[in-house]
C-alpha cells in the first residue's frame, strides 16, 4: 500500500528495537523501560472497578468529566498553577495525546519547534506529523543538563516558533529551579516563542518542589503544560493525562481531540479522580522508594567509575559510559543480560551515556548493578 510520506520521515522507535533484542533472551533484568514497577494505588483501581459495576461505560464530555477537571484544577494549585476547569483544562488519553494534539493545534507546516536534547523521543515525531520542523538544542552535562539561554542562542532557537521543555527530564533526571527557568522564560518572551512544558514527572522530584515555567512572569499566556497519571500514580496502562493552558490553545486542542478521540477513557477518569482525592500517601511512598533507589544507583555507578550526573527528578540515572553507548549497551545485554538504553537515542548530547531506569525493585536493581560492575571490570 502507498504510505504517507510523513510516516517514512520518522524512524521506528529506537527503544522498541532494543527491547526486541532483550526479549529474545532469558533471565534479562531490564532497566530499560520508563514505567513504574508499582501497580496503580488500590483506591484508584477500586474506583475504576466500582464505576464499571455501576455501568459507567459511556463517553464523557469531550474535555473530560467536569468533576475530574475540577480535581485537576485543585491539584495543580500546589505548583502555583491556576486554571479554569471549564476553559483551560483538557483531559487526554495519556500525556502522549496531549503532546500530539498540541503539536497539531499550534504548529503550522514549516514552523520550527525547538527541542532541547537529550529528551524524550516522542516530540520530534509529533512535530513532523504536524508538518513542523524539529530543531535540536543540545544541553550539556557540565550544566547538569539544564537548558540555558546560551544553548538556545547557539542553536538558532531565536527563529523558532515553539519550544518544548521537559523537566524533570527523561532521560537525564535533570530538574530546573525557578532561577534556572528565568533565563529560558526571558528567551521565550524576547523571541515570542510558545512553550510546551511536559511536566509529567512534576511529582517525582527529590531536591525541592517542581517549578512550572508557566508560573514565571509573562509565561502563562504563552505556555501549554502537559501532565498525567502514568508516572506519579503508576497508571501507565490506564492512559490518562491532561493539558493546561490558555482557553484559545486548549479550545483548539479540543477541536482536534473531539474528532480524533471523542473523550479520554471513562474508566480511567474514575480511577484518576480517586487518585487525586485519596492517593497522595501512595505517591509519597513511591517517591520515597524511588529516592532510596536513586541514591543507591548513583553511588554504585560512581564507585565503579561510570561518572554519573546527579539526577534530581523522574526515575532515571544517566551515567557516562566512556565510549560508544550503543556498543556498550549491546555487549552488556549479550554478556550480562542487563538491558539499558543507549543515550544517543535521546538526541544530541546523549552519546556516551546510558539511560538506566530505577523504577525497578531493589533486588533486581542490586543484581543488575553487580552484573554491570562485572561487565565494566
Ligand atoms: N512525556 C514524558 C517525558 C514521558 O517520559 C512519557 C512516558 N514515557 C510521556 C510523556 C507519555 O506519558 P503517557 O503515559 O501519559 O502518555
From TrEMBL:
GO terms for molecular function: pyridoxal phosphate binding; transaminase activity. Its EC number is 2.6.1.-. It is an enzyme of class 2 (transferase). Its cofactor is pyridoxal 5'-phosphate. InterPro entries: Aminotransferase_I/II_large, AspAT/PAT-like, NHTrfase_class1_PyrdxlP-BS, PyrdxlP-dep_Trfase, PyrdxlP-dep_Trfase_major, PyrdxlP-dep_Trfase_small. It comes from the Archaea. It holds the Pfam family Aminotran_1_2. GO terms for biological process: amino acid metabolic process. Keywords: Aminotransferase, Pyridoxal phosphate, Transferase. Residues 27-372 form the Aminotransferase class I/classII large domain. CDD domains: AAT_like. Belongs to the class-I pyridoxal-phosphate-dependent aminotransferase family. Homodimer. This is Aminotransferase. It comes from Halogranum rubrum.
Amino acid at each position: 500500500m502507498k504510505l504517507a510520506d510523513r510516516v517514512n520521515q520518522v524512524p521506528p522507535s529506537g527503544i522498541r528495537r532494543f527491547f526486541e533484542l532483550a526479549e529474545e533472551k532469558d533471565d534479562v533484568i531490564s532497566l530499560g523501560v520508563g514505567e513504574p514497577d508499582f501497580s496503580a494505588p488500590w483506591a484508584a483501581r477500586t474506583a475504576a472497578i466500582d464505576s464499571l459495576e455501576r455501568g459507567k461505560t459511556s463517553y464523557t464530555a469531550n474535555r473530560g468529566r467536569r468533576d475530574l477537571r475540577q480535581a485537576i484544577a485543585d491539584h495543580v494549585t500546589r505548583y502555583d498553577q491556576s486554571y479554569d476547569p471549564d476553559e483551560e483544562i483538557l483531559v487526554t488519553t495519556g500525556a502522549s495525546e496531549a503532546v500530539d494534539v498540541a503539536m497539531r493545534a499550534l504548529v503550522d507546516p514549516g514552523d520550527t519547534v525547538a527541542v532541547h536534547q537529550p529528551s524524550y523521543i516522542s516530540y520530534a515525531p509529533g512535530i513532523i506529523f504536524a508538518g513542523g520542523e524539529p530543531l535540536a538544542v543540545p544541553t550539556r552535562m557540565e550544566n547538569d543538563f539544564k537548558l540555558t539561554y546560551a544553548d538556545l542562542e547557539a542553536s538558532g532557537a531565536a527563529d523558532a516558533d515553539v519550544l518544548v521543555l521537559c523537566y524533570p527530564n527523561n532521560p537525564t533526571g535533570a530538574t530546573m529551579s525557578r532561577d534556572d527557568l528565568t533565563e529560558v522564560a526571558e528567551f521565550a518572551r524576547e523571541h515570542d516563542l510558545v512553550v510546551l512544558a511536559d511536566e509529567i514527572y512534576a511529582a517525582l522530584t527529590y531536591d525541592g518542589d517542581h517549578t512550572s515555567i508557566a508560573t514565571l512572569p509573562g509565561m502563562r499566556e504563552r505556555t501549554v503544560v502537559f501532565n498525567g497519571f502514568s508516572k506519579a500514580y503508576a497508571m501507565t496502562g490506564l492512559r490518562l493525562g491532561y493539558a493546561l493552558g490558555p482557553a484559545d490553545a486548549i479550545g483548539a486542542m479540543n477541536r482536534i481531540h473531539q474528532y480524533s478521540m471523542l473523550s479520554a477513557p471513562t474508566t480511567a477518569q474514575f480511577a484518576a479522580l480517586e487518585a487525586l482525592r485519596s492517593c497522595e500517601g501512595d505517591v509519597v511512598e513511591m517517591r520515597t522508594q524511588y529516592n532510596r533507589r536513586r541514591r543507591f544507583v548513583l553511588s554504585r555507578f560512581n564507585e565503579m567509575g561510570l561518572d554519573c550526573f546527579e539526577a534530581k527528578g523522574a526515575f532515571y540515572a544517566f551515567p557516562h559510559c566512556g565510549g560508544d553507548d550503543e556498543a556498550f549497551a549491546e555487549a552488556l545485554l549479550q554478556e550480562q543480560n542487563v538491558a539499558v538504553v543507549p543515550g544517543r537515542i535521546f538526541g544530541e548530547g546523549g552519546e556516551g551515556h546510558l539511560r538506566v531506569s530505577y523504577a525497578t525493585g531493589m533486588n533486581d536493581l542490586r543484581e543488575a548493578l553487580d552484573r554491570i560492575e562485572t561487565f565494566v571490570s
